[in-house]
Amino acid sequence: MFRLLVVLVLLAGCSSVALLSEDLDALFGERVITDRRSAPGTASADHYDQQIKPIFEQRCIVCHGCYDAPCQLKLNSPEGIMRGANPELVYNGTRILASTPQRLGIDAHTTEQWRERGFHSILNERSQTAAINTQNSVLYKMLELKQQHPNFQAEDSPLIHDDVTLGLDREQQCTTREDFNQFAVDHPLWGMPYALPALAEEEHERLSDWIRAGAAMSLPPQLPENIEKQRQQWEHFLNGDSLKQQLTSRYIYEHWYLANLYFSELPIFTQQEPEQRPGYFFKLVRSATPPGLPIRPIATRRPYDDPGVKRVYYRLQLNHASIVAKTHMPYRLNQQRMDWLTDLFITPEYAVNTLPGYDNEVAANPFIAFKDLPVSARYQLMLQEAEFTIMGFIKGPVCRGQVALNVINDHFWVFFTSPDKVKDQEMADFLNQQSENLRLPGEDESNSGIVTNWFKYSHLQGEFLKAKRQANKQLSDNIKRFDTSLIWNGEGKNPNAALTVFRHFDSSSVVKGLVGQNPKTAWVITYPLLERIHYLLVAEFDVYGNIGHQLLTRLYMDFLRMEGEFNFLAFLPQKSRQELAQYWYRDTSDEVKEFLLTQGEHLIRNPDIHYNTTNPKAELFGLLKSHLDTTLSHKYTLQQHTTPELLAELLPINRITGRAANLMPEMSVLMVDNYLGKPTLFTLIRNSGHSNINGLLTEDSNRLPEEDYLTLVPGVLGTYPGAMYRVSAFRLPKLVEAITSLADEDDYQRFVDQFGVRRTNPRFWLHSDEVHRQFAEQDPLYYGILDFNRLENR
Prior knowledge:
Shape: globular
Distance between the termini: 51 Å
Strand content: 5-15%
Number of strands: 14
Number of helices: 30
Helix content: 25-40%
Number of domains: 4
Radius of gyration: 27 Å
């Protein structure tokens, strides 16, 4: 008892001297790491699930739920909480050598292993008493620090104090218990939640009591019998013994491994979505153990790397972490899906005599590794769920960071060539012939040189384009009409036939449908292009790779983007092609202009489309909308989700351009109260203008703020809001007028004073809870916890 009193006295003051590990041993006892998870149904597990987990989801995971969580501290699962924090940056665009992957649930599986990898605990791992559980817990100390200093505003200002820095690139302070006392002296305003209001007293006490009691958590739940049965059926299907099935499953895995798989009897390839959120999500993983035995995940940098085992088994592993919007990629499984895959890959007559190896020259090139699989089947797998396919690029690890994303425009539409227009064997022969030219930077693994490899892949792309020109000429001679009939229409029912991509500077979004105003650019994607985008930006991309790997990936994507854009230009008259290409690539280098000329030479003939106006691009968009009429999703179309009266009030926002648009955040969430009788969410997106997007590190010099414009859509589109606004429906005209009149930062601050819910607002958490409730109600399948790391302080 006397010792405990001494401990509390020592810790009561804000000592400026950091504690040494020897001091902690003397004060709190030796370190003992235990698994804090209890079986479902026990009192401690139920308490965590019902009382503690909701606080983490509502207050903590909004900043600590993903790759770019500060200090790698992911709080969306018990495993992440037990793993703790690590000061090493995941997103580091300047590292000379690739770093060791630190993927939760993949690269280590016990807390001891994470300690060996440099992660430090945020909970007490020493003597388990109520006092020591709090005093030796970084989590508790950070929460307590915020309670002691809840006001982080500057005097007479709604903004955050200058000492509280924001931004994804701010210097991290990954304090440990040893140096926490000094940290608290240096940064008294940096308690948790960081740069947001303190927890309510009841929330703080609930977390504190939980920490005092030992911070027990829960193991994954037992699956219901019907869910377990479906899981077993899929594992049986994916692990058939035939070489045809093994190759098929390998291909499926390399395209599905990011998915949140769920079971639903709703038809696939329709606009129908579950009215309620699926109860369970699964990850498709490679395991060293067959179905029926505990899953033993195989950890490799990339999904196609050598697994190091004689036989790979594909297993469905329950994803029991809280779902964050940033990485949520739902994908529906049912009997119809299994039958469809069987019809695509298993039933057709073709031979697989040997399985491809895992040498990088083979495994990193899907046109070599999967040459035995029918091209039409491969294209259909990616095409029929095109939103999911492109979402891998958007929501996979590549999506964090401006350098990775300034390769795409802020707003563009995506279309696809019809699989019915190309004969399977002809395409297979062409891809086999071009497999060398279709090699991707991933072959050079995670430590890539830049200059020599850039010339290498630039040459390969040029050779491919030459071959493509000859193939297109032959194809053009065989096609009776070159018009919109070449564009896939989703068989009249599949809404994946048209997509919209929005870039929000250093994050991005993709959704079904042709959303917003007519964009500056559009892509038409073929199978070879779609496959290369997936492998370049998803399967091959290593967020832990060196600067050469990451920059080379971005540089190569320039080729693929231009290929997609020129596929779209092919449907326009020759004169319009040239004018648009010059407009899209204003002020580019001589090398880019030469490449554009080469691209233009591959457009064989004028389309068989009669244009009647001086704006053929707008006409083409109209024709494509008509061609896709029955398949287009209108989930994000204002006209489909509002009354004519309210539509007339909202539409002027989509006509705001220039300086007023430029002052708005990249993406913000607007809640309109009493809208059709209830609170309703909208997303306001700023689309930034550029003279071109070929400048690797010179985006600012290519910016054209006068070409910025706003797009307002119903629902939540995006995962990183920069601001949140709230207005009553009857005040909508005032809000629109205020945005339209924005001329400078002072105007914007006055606008936020009227309509904003700043991160400093005492009612911020109440509003955040309401936003998440409405998001879950309006979009239960795609709902995930939003990320507040980009919330502005304006």
